[in-house]
Amino acid sequence: MSVCLIVAVAPSALILWWILVRDRADPEPPGLVWGTVGLGALSSVWAVGLELLADKLGPGMADAAGEGMPLGSALVAATFVGLAEESGKLLAVLALPFRRREFNQIFDGVLYCVAASLGFATLENILYVGMSGLTDGPFGIALTGTMRAVTAVPGHAGFGILMGLWVGAAKMVPRKRTRFLLTGFGVATAAHALYDAVLFTGTWTGILIVPILAIVVTWSLIGIRHVQQRDLAYARSFWAWRRRVDEAAEAMRLAPAPEGRHLSDQ
Question: What is the distance between the alpha carbons of residues 4 and 120, in angstroms, rounded to a whole number?
Answer without folding.
Answer: 17
